[in-house]
């Protein structure tokens, strides 16, 4: 592809291969460095590497016309992004409203009953913090304006979770909320763990 060759290029490729990276080839093989000295040829010293297995990202473009006063040409790569539907949603509590008073009341009640004794290790402290965070979210969701959950960006969502969520909304029970939150948390962890395994296995097969 290029008129000149250096043994250092083999060393560079060996190093990048050890990190599971591969050299991308430009769509327009032109120099990337331009010199004012006519006695020295322009050269290719700007390269781009990507991880093996990314079929969508297999080349880049050299823009010599963009370098302006620089002696290096910019390199660009097009990253395809799948179009996804996203809804604008928000939950809020009107300041000074009765819902705000109930929110604060629920927080005070739950926080005052939190057991902060025996915080002798990190695990015990993390459990208290997690319980506090769950209580705040529960009180917020109970008293704020609740909108529908969009499943367009949540492929891990299951219909049964909607039923569990509706059960909590109808009872406003902290126990039902914690059960729903625990189920969703475990499901998300399992879903994304499986996705990571799929990507890892696919990369090994390539």
Let me know the average pLDDT.
77
Strand content: 5-15%
- The figure for the number of domains is 2
Q: Look at the helices and sheets and give the structural class.
A: mainly alpha
- Percent helix, as a range, is 40-55%
One letter per element, helices H and strands E, the order comes to HEEEEEHHHH
Count the E strands: 5
> What ranges have pLDDT less than 50 throughout 5 or more consecutive residues?
none
Q: Mind telling me the C-alpha Rg?
A: 28 Å
Please describe the biggest sheet, giving its number of strands, its sense, and whether it closes into a barrel. 3 strands, mixed
Question: For the terminal residues, how far apart are their CA atoms?
Answer: 25 Å
**Strand order, biggest sheet?**
2-4-5
Shape: elongated
Describe the structure.
The relative contact order is 0.09. The chain has helices spanning 7-18, 98-112, 122-143, 159-171, 174-205, and strands spanning 21-23, 25-26, 49-51, 59-62, 75-76. Strands 2-4-5 form a 3-stranded mixed sheet, with no helix packed on it. Strands 1-3 form a two-stranded antiparallel ribbon. It folds into 2 domains: 7-76, no CATH class; 98-205, no CATH class. It is mainly alpha-helical and 206 residues long.
């Amino acid at each position: 592809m290029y008129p000149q060759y250096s043994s250092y290029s083999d060393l560079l490729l060996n190093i990048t291969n050890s990190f599971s990276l591969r050299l991308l080839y430009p769509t327009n093989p032109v120099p990337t460095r331009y010199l004012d000295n006519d006695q020295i040829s322009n050269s290719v010293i700007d390269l781009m590497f990507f991880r093996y297995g990314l079929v969508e990202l297999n080349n880049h473009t050299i823009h010599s016309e963009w370098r302006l006063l620089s002696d290096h040409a910019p390199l660009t790569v097009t990253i395809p992004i799948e179009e996804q539907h996203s809804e604008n949603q928000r939950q809020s509590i009107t300041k000074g409203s009765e819902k705000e008073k109930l929110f604060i009341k629920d927080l005070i009640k739950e926080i005052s009953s939190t057991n902060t004794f025996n915080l002798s290790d990190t695990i015990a402290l993390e459990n208290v913090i997690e319980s506090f965070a769950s209580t705040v979210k529960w009180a917020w969701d109970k008293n704020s304006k609740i909108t529908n959950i969009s499943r367009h960006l949540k492929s891990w969502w299951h219909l049964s979770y909607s039923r569990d969520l509706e059960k909590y909304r109808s009872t406003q029970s902290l126990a039902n909320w914690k059960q729903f939150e625990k189920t969703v948390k475990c499901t998300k962890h399992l879903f994304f763990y499986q996705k990571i395994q799929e990507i890892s296995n696919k990369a090994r097969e390539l």
